[in-house]
Fold this sequence. Notes:
Blueprint (H helix, E strand, L loop, with lengths): L1 H15 L21 H19 L14 H10 L1 H7 L10 E9 L2 E10 L6 E9 L3
Antiparallel strand pairs: 1-2, 2-3
Amino acid sequence: MAALLTVFASITGLIALGYWGTQQPPGTWHPTLIVTDTSIDTVARAVEDGLVTLLTQARPAGERWSMELDEFSANAWLQARLPTWLASQQGISGLPPRVKGVQVAFLSGRVRITVAVVTSPAGEAQTRYLSADLEPV
């Protein structure tokens, strides 16, 4: 749960810095994931169901547990389920309307979070990509 809150806080921070992004997506951005596709929704629901199963399993107090997640599955969840999950949280209405997408890339020893934000300088819509790399401590 702490990792999920860390990811959420990081995403929120990236959105707040929306105007300082770049116009070119990073090499880890996958535009094909930003589509309406039932297979992506199926993968996203499987991720969510797996996490719920892990969270509700009986285990001895203090036992550590983990969940393996591949990059495609993580991005499927971010695209298909994150907006709904955010909307279900008290006081959060979902992703801000300017956020076009959120993706992660699992790199060697770190996780890159990228947010695509639509900006409108001089009345012309542009997409900016904001990335942050997280390293475990």
